[in-house]
Amino acid sequence: MDYEAVIGLEIHAQLATDTKIFCGCSTRFGAPANTHVCPVCLGMPGVLPVLNARVVELGVRAALALGCTVQPVSVFARKNYFYPDLPKGYQISQYEEPLATDGRVSFTMAGEEHAVGIVRVHLEEDAGKSLHEGFTDSARSTYLDFNRSGVPLIEIVTRPDLRAPAAAAEFFQRLRAILTAVGVNDGNMEEGSLRCDANVSVRPVGETRLGTKVEVKNINSFRFLQRALEFEIDRQTDLVRGGGAVAQETRLWNSAAGRTASMRSKEEAHDYRYFPEPDLPPLRLEAEWIESVGASLPELPDARRRRLKAEHGLPDQDAAWLARAPEMAAYFEATAAACGHPRAASHWVQGPLTHRMKAAGIGIDAVRVGAEALAELIGLVESGAVSGSMAKDVFERMWETGRSAREIVHAENLSQIGDAGALSALVDEALAAQPDAVARYRAGRTGALGFLVGRIMRATRGQANPRLVDSLLRERLDRND
Ligand code: ADP
Ligand code: ZN
Ligand code: MG
């Protein structure tokens, strides 16, 4: 029997505010331990949380960017549990009435359309951090840093719409691109700004009911997500194939061992005894304000992909590639507009330009060959003034010197030889110098033609117009004199 995997993700993203969700403490990463704390985020008795308006705005931005409906009323609740990094004994989160519901993220992967439903987006506070390593007495003691306590988060819960580890990793990357594009998250996974819990089950192909799921907690890299899912799917499939059953549990990914390991089972799962937070009123948002937040969102990657495809007639893969980064897309569009050849512009941006940027380790903003300058080069190629192979050299010189394509072509005499008179002489020379090739061609071995074209291209350092050379050669050879 064949099995398929079902995957749903729960993503925690830190909202990019300067201050925490319920107090004025700084959210800056990397400060000395316990220097960004106050009675509110330390959970002292008798203090009141005050909701940070910027957190709400960023949460709404994220929700709208994920295609969700923002609820006019959402409610904060206490999620009760004991853990040393949670001094209050509860986390303030949203539970029954979240900030936003019912979104959707679509993207293409290897030319295939994918869509992932978003169940909900809610606001919550982060807990502190337990430090189990790095101290002389770490074998006996755990240290606590509360700088992170009260840092604002959104939790994004997807529907179980994903079927493959690679698609899950791709989705997580696209989600990161969306969140960073709208400025709600800094995308820094190493600092824990973005992390994900992966839920996965298997079931026989054709079965519509969901299998028992396992949750793999706290994954902070795309590669780990993919590897953890691959491992889990193999493990679960082997289990059910062997007649066993998957236990519902929470597991952790051990990247060194390349495997997941059980953390706690369903029986140990928490009963959080949620109840509405008595110190915070329900969050009420006006429709007009939500609309104005929506209107301030920039174009998102998937919308940009569709637009590039439609407006410039690009193949889907090219449009998807260019759409990923807004600056690259803008550079491409400026080039295409200036030269009027979108496909050529796409080729140059994805190929030579990107190669050069990678080699130099710089971003598009530091590139001195501007869109106009690249457009000029493309124009010279398209008009036949510069041959395709010469164009690469011209581009290299533009990159190195910052001079324009025209200047370089003029100064270094690189323009294409497209004059039949000038080429005729070269063709005659080549025929005289290569009697063997001529004989082979006339004996019906047409491959000899390519050889002769190559000789002439080399003799002219690539400057001859290869199509013209080809036709002049044919004309001469077929004349049979
Ligand atoms: P829980 O109550 O355990 O938190 P939820 O229904 O809230 O479960 O779902 C949590 C996440 O797990 C969601 O992303 C959801 O898509 C995913 N999920 C739920 N059931 C399954 C399943 N059987 N297999 C894979 N993923 C699942
Ligand atoms: Zn504080
Ligand atoms: Mg849940």
Associated small molecules: adenosine-5'-diphosphate, zinc ion, magnesium ion
Question: Structural class of the secondary structure composition?
Answer: alpha+beta
Unreliable stretches: none
Question: Could you tell me the radius of gyration in angstroms?
Answer: 31 Å
Instruction: Supply the number of helical segments.
Output: 15
The pLDDT mean sits at 93
**Main sheet summary:** 9 strands, mixed
Helix proportion range: 40-55%
Envelope shape? elongated
Short description:
The protein is of the alpha+beta class and 481 residues long. The protein folds into three domains: 3-291, no CATH class; 301-411, no CATH class; 420-479, Arc Repressor Mutant, subunit A (Orthogonal Bundle).
Plain-language structure description:
The chain has 481 residues and is an alpha+beta fold. The protein folds into three domains: 3-291, no CATH class; 301-411, no CATH class; 420-479, Orthogonal Bundle (Arc Repressor Mutant, subunit A). The chain has 15 helices and 16 strands. It has helices spanning 53-65, 165-181, 222-241, 287-295, 301-312, 316-323, 326-339, 342-360, 371-382, 388-401, 405-411, 420-433, 435-442, 447-459, 466-479, and strands at residues 3-14, 69-70, 73-74, 76-80, 90-94, 100-109, 112-125, 129-131, 143-145, 152-158, 194-204, 214-219, 249-254, 259-265, 275-276, 283-284. It has a nine-stranded mixed sheet with strand order 2-6-7-10-1-11-12-13-14. Strands 5-4-15 form a three-stranded antiparallel sheet, with no helix packed on it. A two-stranded antiparallel sheet has the order 3-16. It starts with a strand and ends with a helix. The model has no long low-confidence stretch (mean pLDDT 93).
